[in-house]
Specification:
The complex is a heterodimer. Chain A is mainly alpha-helical. Chain A contains five helices and no strands. By secondary structure, chain B is of the alpha/beta class. Helices cover 30% and strands 33% of the residues of chain B. Chain B has helices at 10-21, 35-44, 61-67, 84-87, 103-116, 118-128, 181-187, 229-235, and strands at residues 2-6, 27-32, 49-52, 73-78, 93-98, 139-144, 147-152, 156-162, 165-170, 174-177, 193-197, 200-203, 207-211, 214-217, 220-223. Chain B has a five-stranded parallel beta sheet. Chain B has a five-stranded antiparallel beta sheet with strand order 10-9-8-12-11. Classes of the chains: A mainly alpha, B alpha/beta. The A-B interface holds A 8, 11-16, 19, 22-23, 26-27, 29-30, 52, 55-56, 58-60, 62-63 and B 8-12, 14-15, 18-19, 55, 57, 79-80, 99-100, 102-103, 198, 223, 225-226.
Chain lengths: 105, 239
Amino acid sequence: MIQPSLTYIEELADGNEAFKAKLIEIVKQELPEEIELYYKHVEAQLYSEAAKDVHKLKHKISILGLEKEYHLAVAYEEALREDHCDGKIQFEDILSAMSLFVKSI
Amino acid sequence: MKCIIIDDEAAARAIIAHLCDQVDNLEVVEEFPNALQAIKFLNKNQVDVIFLDIHMPDFTGFDFIDTIKNPPKIVLTTSDENFAITAFEYDCIVDYLVKPLSLPRFLKSIQKVENFVPSATSNQEETANPSTQESSQKELYVNIDRRLIKIEFEKIFLIEAKGDYILIKTEDKNYTVHSTLKKIEDKLPESLFLKVHRSYIINFKKIIDIEDNSILIAQDVIPISRANRPLLMKKLNLL
């Protein structure tokens, strides 16, 4: 089960609630935009562009504490650079889990 | 040291700025979402270090380095581990940080930067810390309601940042002054005072006890940030 968390953000904030709130707000704003762009590119089979989107999404994956999923994203980014999309379903599951989590916080 | 941050991701810029905040002599003067805006800025301004993302649309981090004349020291911040070898072909690149960034790794990077920019660091310490030249002074005057009130250093317990104000807690009373922690820090003698957290400076002669990441001073429990804890421990006469 893909379980995003705020562990990394909380550790980084080290009790600084203002920073924690600011970073969460930024993630809530940036993540849907990045996901939308990724789907736009992958549906148009613009795989090299989609690879750039995955690259950026990797950081959000790590910010939300998804270590194992981060490695899946690395492999998927590489696949897209090689012009195929192995790992698409697993990667998009990660996106769904992150979207749900971000909406819930 | 003055630095800028270049990263197309707002979350990354916020994280780096937050980490820079934990370092005493490091000031973020500007943040840029792309390299082109940063180039314009650097045409008119000088900085000591740049935190630079590699993958950005239109203009990559390496394109940026190739474009600027006499680049300052650069710390690459990236989610891509594949460019480490390329990075070290550039003399100006002093470190390569892989996201997600952590405070301990970031502090190591700052140490590397300081080794490369020794003059900038020592100059700053000399000029930004007039307290070292004013060690004979025993008090500070603060402006409250158009009166200059004398506060003796030895009587101060701690100073807390409160938005645009600071709260100075002393043995006699507490004073709220329109100022910043940075401004008062420059006026305090290093032999007595230490910034232990982004919002607190303490008189470490007033410490009652220290437990994990907090200090008891008078009635107050003050947090110690991880970045400042080693300096505090160095200042204490530990058995």
